[in-house]
């Protein structure tokens, strides 16, 4: 038997020195990837190991100690959860890794959404004990929507009750995906000692005495060879689907080298046809370096992705971008943070080269932004760099109005890139400053939170004058209030959380709206629009159709009409709740009396859509949540009875180890304070996770309470 080979993690993979200066990295070496999963599956623990083994940090931060580098916010350290997506850069093998660690809690799903929009690949983490959980399904769907190639890591193989095969089966059944196992575990639960690399046909173990820094590779033990050979045969069969030569050799029974199999599997991964699966225990420092190898081997560089299409802001003409530092600059803002009152804007650079002092056009807002400084971000620390090139993720200062989803372009070639899908907030809370002199500080602080978070909204109740916050859930708003106190010193009084309903329409209506306003000695302002509003199927949101700009109506005027209609829909028509599942068509804008001003068109459009919606039979929709409960079987009857009282619908039950798992849908209005109720019913042994599913017709009593006719 040949002696085992040793690998030390810092800067070495397959015998090659890895660390390169940042300014020498070719685009082909970049891996922009995120880590996504359900809460507590181990995202941040994996991130901390990646930083440690790459040499970026010299001490492992632990989530349970509140010392994780990537969880830098005080609220994250105290609660042991990730709240905001954190970015960092490190090196492994011949690659520069731009990593984004994302939250797992449903209230912060916008952090995953905005990350998926700019990532080239992802690691999806699943617990070997819990398997595919509700938030796992949500983030997987988000990655599907953006066609993000993924590799999977089944974590916690060392835990009691670990069953990686069950987790694999759930990936197939719940995610409709094709996972491909590239490793086998050596031992399970407390006897987990390492993995078998099926491509190299080697045993991989991790030295415990040096926190897993030393990786040992040795021959597969004799007793495991039959299982390994069978698993490698299955792996080869999958690889043959993506390489004709591999297929021919496979059918002829010829041996196929690991590198050829790896290349074929990479093609399948980049097309999102398959998802390579790796095993380990991040907390026990086992399996991370092979996972880092897999990021380099299977996830794409920016050069390997289909060209992104941008559209001219006025003509709508499409143009495919090339990931070329010499091309005109195009970048997407995917995150904004307020630091000491100033904006720090995170950008994915898709083409061109970004330099300090550059004047860029924000195509959506028709303003010019001047870049001051450019940084790579390491959690909450900055490293100033001389430029950001195509394929990179950077942060900049100097932007004054740019928000999440905006495009920054070379002014000579303006384009608008596809933005983000922002989920609708479903919970509201009334707040007021405890001290009268803090009111202005309260409003300005909330405005900064609005820069950062597209799912957080603020408005004033026209009847009570109260400031109303809306967000994705109780925890989301709780974090906002905590940050108000810590970061801005504002103490507030709060009301009880309330559900944010939505208005929608029964039938279609056309309305002609005329706007007229005297302007003193100047010419009166006049505008006229013919609108049609009507219902859409559930889940379609608001669709506004504005005719293309035709002289004398400019693109600026038509853009103003669209924004005004959008604001009118957000204001609602009867109850103050936003409209949804509604289409608005502008049928006619007469210009016989002269070209209307932007102000007049704005007034006619906003008033017209509100009044038309009032005539179209408005009624309320309520948010419905998908619920997954885990509890001991002896408490099942009591919990099911409680769900029935809450108008819940049980959609499935299964046993998961020693616990009973219940999946149900429940109106959000019934879920405030449910954790306390569940703990009482299960003597502290029950838990649940919840995610937004969609809107359904609200009960008759809710309609009547808001002055609307029941459905």
From TrEMBL:
<keyword id="KW-0547">Nucleotide-binding</keyword>
<dbReference type="InterPro" id="IPR027417">
    <property type="entry name" value="P-loop_NTPase"/>
</dbReference>
<feature type="domain" description="Tr-type G">
    <location>
        <begin position="28"/>
        <end position="303"/>
    </location>
</feature>
<dbReference type="InterPro" id="IPR000795">
    <property type="entry name" value="T_Tr_GTP-bd_dom"/>
</dbReference>
<dbReference type="Pfam" id="PF00679">
    <property type="entry name" value="EFG_C"/>
</dbReference>
<dbReference type="Pfam" id="PF00009">
    <property type="entry name" value="GTP_EFTU"/>
</dbReference>
<dbReference type="InterPro" id="IPR000640">
    <property type="entry name" value="EFG_V-like"/>
</dbReference>
<dbReference type="InterPro" id="IPR014721">
    <property type="entry name" value="Ribsml_uS5_D2-typ_fold_subgr"/>
</dbReference>
<dbReference type="GO" id="GO:0005525">
    <property type="term" value="F:GTP binding"/>
</dbReference>
<keyword id="KW-0648">Protein biosynthesis</keyword>
<dbReference type="Pfam" id="PF03144">
    <property type="entry name" value="GTP_EFTU_D2"/>
</dbReference>
<dbReference type="InterPro" id="IPR020568">
    <property type="entry name" value="Ribosomal_Su5_D2-typ_SF"/>
</dbReference>
<dbReference type="InterPro" id="IPR035649">
    <property type="entry name" value="EFG_V"/>
</dbReference>
<dbReference type="InterPro" id="IPR035647">
    <property type="entry name" value="EFG_III/V"/>
</dbReference>
<feature type="binding site">
    <location>
        <begin position="155"/>
        <end position="158"/>
    </location>
    <ligand>
        <name>GTP</name>
    </ligand>
</feature>
<dbReference type="InterPro" id="IPR005225">
    <property type="entry name" value="Small_GTP-bd"/>
</dbReference>
<feature type="binding site">
    <location>
        <begin position="101"/>
        <end position="105"/>
    </location>
    <ligand>
        <name>GTP</name>
    </ligand>
</feature>
<comment type="similarity">
    <text>Belongs to the TRAFAC class translation factor GTPase superfamily. Classic translation factor GTPase family. EF-G/EF-2 subfamily.</text>
</comment>
<dbReference type="InterPro" id="IPR031157">
    <property type="entry name" value="G_TR_CS"/>
</dbReference>
<dbReference type="InterPro" id="IPR009000">
    <property type="entry name" value="Transl_B-barrel_sf"/>
</dbReference>
<dbReference type="InterPro" id="IPR005517">
    <property type="entry name" value="Transl_elong_EFG/EF2_IV"/>
</dbReference>
<feature type="binding site">
    <location>
        <begin position="37"/>
        <end position="44"/>
    </location>
    <ligand>
        <name>GTP</name>
    </ligand>
</feature>
<dbReference type="InterPro" id="IPR041095">
    <property type="entry name" value="EFG_II"/>
</dbReference>
<dbReference type="Pfam" id="PF03764">
    <property type="entry name" value="EFG_IV"/>
</dbReference>
<dbReference type="InterPro" id="IPR004161">
    <property type="entry name" value="EFTu-like_2"/>
</dbReference>
<keyword id="KW-0342">GTP-binding</keyword>
<dbReference type="InterPro" id="IPR009022">
    <property type="entry name" value="EFG_III"/>
</dbReference>
<dbReference type="GO" id="GO:0003924">
    <property type="term" value="F:GTPase activity"/>
</dbReference>
<keyword id="KW-0251">Elongation factor</keyword>
<dbReference type="GO" id="GO:0005737">
    <property type="term" value="C:cytoplasm"/>
</dbReference>
<dbReference type="Pfam" id="PF14492">
    <property type="entry name" value="EFG_III"/>
</dbReference>
<dbReference type="GO" id="GO:0003746">
    <property type="term" value="F:translation elongation factor activity"/>
</dbReference>
<dbReference type="InterPro" id="IPR004540">
    <property type="entry name" value="Transl_elong_EFG/EF2"/>
</dbReference>
<keyword id="KW-0963">Cytoplasm</keyword>
<dbReference type="GO" id="GO:0032790">
    <property type="term" value="P:ribosome disassembly"/>
</dbReference>
<comment type="function">
    <text>Catalyzes the GTP-dependent ribosomal translocation step during translation elongation. During this step, the ribosome changes from the pre-translocational (PRE) to the post-translocational (POST) state as the newly formed A-site-bound peptidyl-tRNA and P-site-bound deacylated tRNA move to the P and E sites, respectively. Catalyzes the coordinated movement of the two tRNA molecules, the mRNA and conformational changes in the ribosome.</text>
</comment>
<protein>
    <recommendedName>
        <fullName>Elongation factor G</fullName>
    </recommendedName>
</protein>
């Amino acid at each position: 038997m040949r002696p085992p080979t040793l690998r030390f993690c810092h800067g070495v993979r397959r015998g090659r020195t890895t660390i390169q200066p940042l300014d020498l990295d070719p685009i082909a070496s970049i891996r922009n990837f995120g880590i996504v999963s359900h809460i507590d599956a181990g995202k941040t623990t994996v991130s901390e190991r990646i930083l440690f083994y790459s040499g970026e940090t010299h001490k492992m931060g632990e989530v349970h100690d509140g010392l994780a580098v990537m969880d830098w916010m005080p609220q994250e350290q105290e609660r042991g959860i990730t709240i905001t997506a954190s970015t960092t850069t490190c090196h492994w093998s011949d690659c520069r890794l731009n990593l984004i660690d994302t939250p797992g809690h449903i209230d912060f799903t916008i952090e995953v959404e905005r990350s998926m929009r700019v990532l080239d690949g992802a690691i999806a983490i699943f617990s070997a004990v819990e398997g595919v959980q509700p938030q796992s399904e949500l983030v997987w769907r988000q990655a599907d929507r953006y066609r993000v190639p993924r590799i999977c890591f089944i974590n916690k193989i060392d835990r009691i009750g670990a069953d990686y095969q069950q987790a694999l089966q759930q990936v197939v059944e719940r995610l409709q995906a094709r996972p491909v196992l590239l490793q086998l575990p050596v031992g399970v639960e407390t006897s987990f000692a390492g993995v078998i690399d099926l491509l190299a046909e080697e045993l991989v173990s991790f030295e415990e005495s040096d926190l897993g820094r030393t990786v040992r590779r040795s021959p597969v033990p004799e007793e495991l060879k039959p299982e390994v050979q069978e698993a490698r045969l299955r792996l080869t069969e999958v690889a043959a689907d993506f390489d004709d030569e591999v297929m021919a050799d496979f059918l002829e029974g010829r041996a196929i080298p690991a590198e050829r199999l790896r290349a074929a599997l990479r093609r399948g991964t980049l097309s999102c046809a398959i998802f390579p699966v790796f095993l380990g225990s991040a907390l026990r420092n086992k399996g991370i370096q092979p996972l880092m190898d897999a990021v380099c081997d299977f996830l794409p560089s920016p050069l390997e992705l289909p060209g992104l299409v941008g559209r001219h802001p006025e003509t709508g003409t499409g143009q495919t971008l090339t990931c070329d530092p010499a091309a005109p600059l195009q970048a997407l803002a995917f995150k904004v943070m307020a630091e000491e009152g100033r904006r720090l804007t995170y950008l994915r650079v898709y083409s061109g080269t970004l330099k300090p002092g550059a004047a860029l056009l924000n195509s959506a807002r028709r303003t010019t932004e001047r870049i001051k400084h450019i940084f790579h971000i390491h959690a909450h620390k900055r490293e100033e760099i001389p430029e950001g090139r195509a394929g990179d993720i950077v942060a900049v200062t100097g932007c004054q109005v740019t928000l999440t989803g905006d495009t920054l372009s070379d002014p000579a070639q303006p384009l608008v890139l596809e933005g983000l899908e922002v989920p609708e907030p479903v919970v509201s809370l009334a707040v007021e400053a405890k001290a009268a002199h803090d009111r202005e500080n309260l409003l300005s602080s909330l405005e900064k939170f609005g820069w950062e978070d597209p799912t957080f909204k603020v408005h004033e109740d026209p009847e009570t004058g109260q400031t109303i916050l809306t967000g994705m859930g109780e925890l989301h708003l709780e974090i906002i209030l905590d940050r108000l106190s810590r970061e801005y010193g504002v103490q507030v009084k709060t009301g009880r959380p309330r559900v944010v309903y939505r208005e929608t329409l029964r039938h279609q209506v056309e309305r002609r709206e005329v706007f007229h306003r005297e302007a003193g000695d100047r010419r009166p302002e006049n505008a006229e629009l013919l609108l049609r509003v009507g219902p859409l199927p559930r889940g379609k949101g608001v669709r506004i159709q504005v005719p293309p700009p035709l002289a004398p109506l400019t693109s600026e005027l038509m853009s103003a009409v669209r924004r005004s209609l959008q604001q009118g829909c957000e204001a609602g028509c009867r109850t103050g709740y936003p409209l949804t599942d509604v289409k608005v068509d502008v049928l006619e804008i007469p210009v016989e009396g002269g070209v209307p001003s932007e102000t007049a068109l704005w007034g006619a459009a906003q008033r017209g859509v509100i009044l038309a919606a009032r005539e179209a039979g408005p009624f309320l929709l309520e948010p419905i949540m998908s619920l997954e409960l885990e509890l001991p079987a002896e408490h099942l009857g009591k919990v099911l009875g409680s769900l029935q009282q809450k108008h819940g619908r049980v959609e499935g039950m299964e046993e998961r180890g020693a616990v009973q798992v219940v999946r149900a849908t429940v109106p959000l209005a019934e879920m405030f304070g449910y954790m306390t109720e569940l703990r009482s019913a299960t003597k502290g042994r029950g838990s649940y996770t919840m995610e937004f599913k969609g809107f359904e017709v609200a009960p008759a009593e809710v309609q009547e309470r808001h002055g609307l006719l029941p459905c």
